[in-house]
Every structure is written in structure tokens, then in C-alpha cells.
Amino acid sequence: MSGYATRVRTLLAIGATNGLRVLDYRLGLKSGLHPVQRVTAALPAAGPFFTLPSAVDPARRAPAAWHDEATLFGAYPIAIGAQPPAWTRDPLTEPGAQDPAPDTLPPWWQIGDFAGGDIKRVWELSRFDWAMAFAQHARAGEVGAVERLNHWIEDWVRANPAYRGPNWKCAQEASIRVLHLSVAAMLLSDATMSAPLRSLVDAHVRRILPTLSYARAQDNNHATSEAGALFVAGAWMTCAGLPEGAELARRGRSLIERAVARLFAPDGSFSQYSVNYHRVALDTLSIVELWRRRAGLPPFNTTWNQRASGAANWLRLMVDPASGDAPNLGANDGANLLPLTDAAYRDYRPSVQLATVLFQERRAFPPGPWDESLAWLGVAPPDTVAELPERAIFDDGGYAVLRQAEAMVMLRYPRFRFRPSHADAMHVDLWLAGRNLLRDGGSYSYNTEAEWLDYFGGVRSHNTIEFDARPQMPRLSRFLFGDWLATDMRRSTDMGFAAAYRHRAGWRHHREVRLDGHLTVIDTLDGFEREARLRWRLAPGDWRIEDGVVTDGEHWLEMRADVPIVSLKLTSGWESRHYLEKTPLPVLEAVITRPGRVTSEYRWTA
User: Fold this and answer.
1) 559 pLDDT exceeds 70?
2) Residue 562 has pLDDT above 80, yes or no
3) What whole-number distance in Å separates Cα of residue 349 and Cα of residue 282?
4) Phi and psi at residue 504, to the nearest 5°
5) Which residues pair with 428 in a beta bridge?
6) Residue 225 and residue 207: Cα distance in Å, rounded?
7) Helices 275-295 & 302-318 angle (0-180, nearest 10)
8) Lowest model confidence (mean pLDDT) among 5-19, 445-459, 525-539
9) Contact indicator for 269, 395 with CB cutoff of 8 Å
10) Where on the phi/psi map is residue 38: left (φ > 0), alpha (ψ -120 to 50), or beta?
11) How far apart (Å, rounded) are the C-alpha atoms in residues 523 and 456?
């Protein structure tokens, strides 16, 4: 009965309308009656899709990616050549495999998301990152780059007949291809749209339109990506003088304005509670705004502009300026929508710089390599550089960020208006001079054993308290937790921030974070039956316990309590800095068996 009640409460939290949208979508596909199953399109038999740029700049250095090697999910290099890869195979486990005959591919709705392995592996090459890279190569004067671009698109069309095979399964994947093709056009300064390219984009638009209700029901970046792709397609067609562009841009505008107003809070927090998905959504808004300006269309409404500015500010204040990295917060599937530079996958500075210039008319960071995206896209940066405040509270999403000199600490507290993807209530991340000292575990994979889904998405993968060896929230499915936690107290303090929640089981966790030359975390814990286990997930190193203090020789973590600490030990855990990656790290665990207060102090050499 309790499991049924949990599901009812969770459905009410998600919203009955969204639940009905998902149900309608699934029943429609199962019955064969969904309108998307009757969509047809004539894909172009041949190109050319793009033409040579009107001007080249041999002094411009194109990124190294997609010459002889590509890096998938920001971490896994694969060799590439002049000939296109297999589009419907897993490039990581099936290198050198050949695509099947196109007429043997089933309709996309007959293909399971995970039945044949992680479908994201297959999708990765079909996101068309290479289209942007080849356009950059062409702008830099590389001979044959446009021919290679056209050849790869033509081969993709051959191997992926309309609405058959895995690469048509997800409307968001179709949207990402539209966005990347549009950026390639911008990079080539191509204001036209060839007939083959128009047919290709039209086929993608036809795939996106019938499932918009399902995208809205997700309350995540499906909605922003798909609405953004429709607007961009319309604006692109408008620039090309195609009459159908105006209506498509109008519809896309309505959808993207509605999605941004719903999914981004006034303080910039995004519905997915994830740093990387925030970047995906923010990059989408940047591409949309660039095409609005390019097409000379009216500005978006006031709410859209305010939320876009807030979203840029949110990510700017999450980023460590020294490294460009950020807390490994929430779900992370390896997505990077605008990889226009040689920056590492976990370097968020190019995206933040672009969005801050577009939506706040100032730089996020002083001039540096992260300005290269601006140069490629023809955006002139202003001279003004935004300052970093010592305290930033994003209460709509549940984040407190404190800074002092080169140190940054982030507290995650539960303010769930949308479904959480990680059980990370009261997690603390610590950064110092570009180094992540106290770490979030990441996501690892969406298609893995239940053990790893529970580990990486659960309490053991975060710097917080585990009560009575039980999860913070019960997992109802691969992407859904039940009984969402809710903060019942939060306040700023003289040196930091404090927040608290009470669990349905009676557990109470009050956490105060202070940053004053070192990090102090004070946990007040009660309501548990057997134990409260505190974990600190440390940066890899030679850690040891000396006289009750954990140290690697340069950092010291000391724990005190007003009740006995019955166990203090160093153990091993896991983290995932990139999708599909799993590496060990040291974890300090402390256990108390009576309600009390535990104080943790993390110090470092000056």
C-alpha cells in the first residue's frame, strides 16, 4: 500500500496533465494510431547541401576535432577518415562495423531505448557535431572540407531513410541535428538553403511536430531543444527567402517562450537540476537568439529575456574560473551542444561567455580562449566583465554558492518543483584554485545494472548523510524517484548558509556551511533508528588517518561530534566525470548511532 501511495504522490507532483500526455503518447504508439506513425517525408537523394564559404580566413585556427580523430561523450577518442562512419552501429563497441541495408531498418517506434544496449552510443555520431567542425575547417581555408561535409550528410541520408532506424527514434535527437546544421550554415556565412538541405530540414521538422506534447510532458530540455529547433528552422528559412519560414518561426517562438517561462525559474535555475543539462539548454537559447538576430525578427518576450539572462548567470556562478569546470551536479549524459573550440568537455567557459554576452551584454570572464566561440559566430564581446559575488543563493532551485579568494563551496538543498534525477539532498561540493576537493559522483550510464543506477544517482554518490542505510527517495523507475524531499528551513548566516529537511520516515538533517579561510560543515541529525552515516568523497590522493584527522599532507579533514563517532574509516567509492566512465576515489565515512551534531572542518595549506 505504501508503494502505491508513493506512486500517487509522485504522479501528483509531476502533474496529472503531464502523466496523461505520456500515457497518450505510449498508448498511441502501441496501438499504431499515433499521428507520428503516419508522417512521411522525401529525403534528398543527393546534395550538395552546402557550398563553399564566400570568404575564408587562413589565419583562423579550426579546432583539432574531426580531422583524424573524434572524441565521443567528451572522453573516448575514435579514429575517423575521409569516409563516413557507420551511422546505426555503436562506434565504441563495434569499430569498423558496417550499416545494414537501409530497407531492413524497422520503423523507429519499434526500437527499444535500451533493449539492444545504450542507444545513446548509436546516437552520438548522428548528432552532427562534425557538421559544425567541417564548416569551421572550410572557413579556415582547408581544401575539401565542404566536400567532406556534403559527402557525410549524403551518406547519413542514405543510411537513415526517413523515420526508420534508431536515429529517428528521438525527436530531441532530430532537433539537435537541425540546430547543428543551422550553426554550420552560420559558420559558412551561408544565407541560402539549398533544395536538398531544405528537404532534409523539413523531414526533421515533420518528425518533431507530432510529438511536441510528449516533449512538454518531460519538463526538461526535450521541450527547449524541440521548440528551439522549430524556431531556428523557421528563422533559417526566413533568411533564405522561403515563405513557410514565417509560420514555423512563429510557432517555434510561442513554444520556446512557453518552455523557457516554465522550465527556468526567475533565479535562472533549470528544471533538470543538472549543470550539464543546464549547459545544453543554455546553448540552445544562445543558438535561438543568434538566429533571431540573423533573421531580423522581433525580440522574445520580457520573461524569456529575463530567464535567459538568469540562466546564463546561474551557470556562470557555478563555474570554477580557474579550470572552467563545475560541480558534477545531477544527470550528465555527455552532451555538449556547441563544441566550437578545443576546450575540454568539462570546460563550461565557452558556453557561459557566449550566453553572458548575448543575454547580459557583458563578459563572464576576461578575454581568453573561451572567446573563440564568439569569434566563430560573429559576436563582438563588450569590455565589461561581470564580478563574482562572495555569496549567491538560487533558492528557486535549491543552491547556495559561497566564494572566498580561490575557494568555492556549493550546497545543494531540496527545492524540487520538477522530478529530481539524483538523490543529492544537502550535498556539498568544494573547489580550490581549479581543483575539485569534495566531489559529486556523476551519472556513469543510463543503461547499466540497477546496482550502479542506485549508486550513482543515490545518496552514496554524494557528500551528505545516509540514514539507516536507506535511500533518501525510493526509485520508482530508471528516471524517476518518489516522495521528493522538501526543504523546511533555509537561511543565510554570517559566514555561510544553512538548510534543513525532514523525511517522511522522521529523519531530520540540518546542515550549515561556512567558508572562512577553510570549510566548516555542521550537521545536526536526529529522527533515525539505527545510524546516520556521513560521507566525504575526496579527490584522489594518498589519504590516511592520523590521530583522528584525515590528511594527504596538504589538506586536513577533521571531524568532531557531541556524541560518539562509532566508526571513522577511509574506504573506496566511485565517480564518473564523463558518461560511461567510472573511476575510484577515496571516501571518508563517519557513523553516529545517537542524535547529535557533527562538525567537519576541511583545511588546506595557504
Assistant:
1) yes
2) yes
3) 12
4) -60, -25
5) 411
6) 13
7) 140
8) 5-19
9) no
10) alpha
11) 23
For the record, the C-alpha cell of 19 comes out as: 502523466
Identify the residue whose cell numbers are 546561474: 314
pLDDT mean across residues, the chain:
95
Asked if the bond preceding 586 is cis, omega within 30° of 0, the reply is: no
Residue 190 scores a pLDDT above 90: no
How far is C-alpha 472 from the geometric centre of its chain's CA atoms? 23
- Helix and strand tally (H, E) in the chain? 15, 21
Q: How far is CA 473 from the centre of its chain?
A: 22
Tell me the C-alpha distance between 295 and 396, whole Å: 34
Residue 322 near residue 434 (C-beta atoms within 8 A): yes
Distance CA 74, CA 321 (A): 20
Residues of the chain above pLDDT 90, percent:
89
Q: Quick check: 335 and 263 in contact, CB under 8 A?
A: no
CA dist 194 and 242 (Å) reads 11
C-beta of residue 309 within 8 angstroms of C-beta of residue 302: no
Give me the CATH topology for the region 391-604: Beta-galactosidase; Chain A, domain 5 (2.70.98)
Q: Residue 468: which residues within 8 A CB-CB, separation 6 or more?
A: 505, 507, 528, 529, 530, 531, 532
Edge to edge, the sheet with strand 567-575 lists 465-467, 532-537, 583-592, 567-575
User: What single-letter amino acid sits at 75?
Assistant: A
| Letter string b/e over residues 161-199, b meaning 16 or more CB atoms within 10 A of that residue's CB | ebbbbbbbbbbbbbbbbbbbbbbbbbbbebeebbebbbb
Domain residue ranges in the chain: 1-33, 62-169, 391-604
Measured over the CA atoms of residue 217, residue 221, residue 224 and residue 226, the dihedral's sign is negative
End-to-end C-alpha distance for the chain, whole angstroms: 56
- The CA R_g of the chain, rounded to the nearest whole Å, is 25
393-437 pLDDT, tens digit per residue, is 999 999 999 999 999 999 999 999 999 999 999 999 999 999 999
What pLDDT does residue 4 have? 78
The C-alpha atoms of residue 95 and residue 501 are separated, in whole angstroms, by 49
305 pLDDT exceeds 70? Answer: yes
DSSP 242-297: -TTHHHHHHHHHHHHHHHHHHHB-TTS-BTT--HHHHHHHHHHHHHHHHHHHHHTP
Closest listed residue to residue 591, CA positions, set 605, 573, 575, 571 = 571
Grid cell, residue 282, equals: 543554455
Report the phi/psi class of residue 73: left, alpha or beta, with left for phi > 0 and alpha for psi in -120 to 50. Answer: left
Quote the pTM value.
Answer: 0.97
Question: What's at 31, amino acid-wise?
Answer: S
For residues 197 and 51, the answer to whether their CB atoms sit within 8 Å is no
Burial of residue 156, with CB atoms counted within 10 A of its CB: 0-12 exposed, 13-18 middle, 19 or more buried: buried
**Residue 83, C-beta contacts closer than 8 angstroms, at least 6 positions apart:** none
Residue 113 has pLDDT above 80, yes or no: no
The residue type of 478 is: R
The number of C-alpha atoms within 13 Å of 408 and in the hemisphere containing its C-beta is: 26
